[in-house]
Amino acid sequence: MTHRRTADTAHPLHPLLAERWSPRSFDPEHGLDHADLTPLLEAARWAPSANNSQPWRFLVTRRGTDDFVRLYDTLSAGNQVWAGAASALLLVAAETVDGDGRARSHALYDTGQAVAHLVVQAQAHGLVTHQMGGFDAGAVRAAFDLPDQVTPVVVLAVGQVAAADRLPAPLAAREEAPRSRLPLDSLLLPVSVQV
């Protein structure tokens, strides 16, 4: 199902960026196989990182599996309302300490870049994603026995978009509300050259 919500940008953007949004209404009949997920992970793999450290790590779960349920169970109640219909849930984590015990100061930033690459690649494949900070990191750590040097960062829902009317009324309204962002000038620090 195609449901475009192209951003009303102040300057032209590539369609992959302008059309990317974060729906909550996922098609519960849509599934993702290995061939669907591999290009997304490959895009993340090629993201830039400090000293080419590549600190990102992914836990991939597909709807209908025990691992999906375990990851779903760590989500906040507000995310559980809709995330169970996603085709896959991915835990994204960062190795914040290297093999010698030194802190990787840019690990979270680098992991964010990997997620951005994954999200754009998903968009290119006709998939949608929704990034969630609303999850219990401690519960994730326990459920999947994550090592201490790995920090859970975000959970991604991946799949195909469905009609907003599948959602409870307040969420359906948010799904169809106009997209907005702060004006560009408000994002520039005072010393920046105005663009």
TrEMBL record:
Domain Nitroreductase per the UniProt entry, residue ranges: 18-63, 78-159
Keywords for the protein's UniProt record, in alphabetical order: Oxidoreductase
UniProt cross-references to InterPro entries, sorted A to Z: Nitroreductase (IPR029479), Nitroreductase-like (IPR000415)
Gene3D superfamilies the record matches: NADH Oxidase
CDD domains: TdsD-like
Similarity section: Belongs to the nitroreductase family.
Protein name (record): Nitroreductase family protein
